[in-house]
Amino acid sequence: MSLQLSTVILPYRRWSEGGRTAWTRAEQLGFHTAYTYDHLSWRSFRDGPWFGAVPTLTAAAAVTDRLRLGTLVTSPNFRHPVTLAKELISLDDISGGRVTLGIGAGGSGFDATALGQDPWTPRERADRFAEFVPLLDRLLSEDAVSYEGDFYSAHEARNIPGCVQRPRLPFAVAATGPRGMRLAARYGQAWVTTGDPNLYENGTPEQSIQALRGQAEKLADTCAEVGRDMTGLDRVLLSGFTPDRTGPLQSLDAFVDFAGRHAELGFTELVIHWPIPDSPFAADEKVFEQIAMEAPAQLR
Predict the structure, then answer these.
(1) Parallel, antiparallel, or unpaired for β 153-158 and 144-148?
(2) Rounded distance, CA 198 to CA 153, Å?
(3) Is residue 273 within 8 Å of 211, Cβ to Cβ?
(4) Which of 78, 54, 62 is nearest to 23 (CA)?
(5) Which end of the chain is more exposed for a tag (fewer CB within 10 A), N or C?
(6) How much of the chain is in helix, strand and coil states, percent to nearest 5?
(7) pLDDT tens profile 52-102
(8) DSSP assignment, residue 250?
C-alpha cells in the first residue's frame, strides 16, 4: 500500500493575509488531506492570531475542489457532541463530502480551562471521550437522537439530512492508551498518533521507531479483541513530535528515508506541518514543496 502525504495548516494567519493561499496551494501541491488544529489557542501561539477550525475549514472548502479537509484533533475540552455534529454535517455538505474528523481526548493545555472549569485529570478526559465518541457517531448517522449520559445529553436532536459521506464522515481517532485504542478500533476509520511524547526531548529516532511499533502492535491486538479487521483501519502519523522533529523536512532524501521507515511500520498516511517561520515548525518552503510534489512517487 502506498503512503499518503498530507499536511496540517495552523490557523494563525488572517484569511486575506496568507490564510487562503496556503489551502489553495496545498491542493495544487497534491496533498491527500489538509488538516488544521481545533484549539482555542495553542502553546507558543497563544498571544498571537489564532482562528477557529470549523470556519477555517469551511472557507477552505469553498476555495478547493479535490483536497480532503479535517481536524487534528477535535476534543471534548470545549466541544459538545450535539453542536459539533451540526457543524460537521454542514461542513461535509459544503465541501461535497471531503471532511475527516480527527478526534482525541484532549490535553491539559489552554483549552482545558478556557470555559472556566478546572482541568480534567487523564482519567476524567478518558471517561468523557468514551462517551463523546459513541454519541457523536450516533448524531452523525441517525436523523434523531435522544441520550442521557454521565457527561453529555441529547434530547430529540435532529440532524437531517445527515452527512454527504455515508453512513457518516470518517473518524480519525487519536489514541495511545487502551481505552482510546478501543474507541479507534470500534469507531475509527483511521488511528492517529504523534509517537511517544516522553521521547521528544531526549529520545532517539530509533527509540521512537520502537515505541511506534509497540503502539501499532497494541492497536492490532485491540482490533483483534473487538473483532475489527485491521486492514480497514488507516494508520496516521502526525510528524513533528518525534525526536526527528523537523529533520525530515531538511531535504527530499531525508524525508523519503523518514517516511519509508514509518511506512514499514504499517502507517498509511504521514502528515507534515506547513512551514511557519520562527516557530517549532520552521522549514524551507522550497524544500517543503519539493517534498510534496516528488516524495509520493518514491513512496509507492
Answers:
(1) antiparallel
(2) 36
(3) no
(4) 62
(5) C
(6) 45, 15, 40
(7) 999 999 999 999 999 999 999 999 999 999 999 999 999 999 999 999 999
(8) S
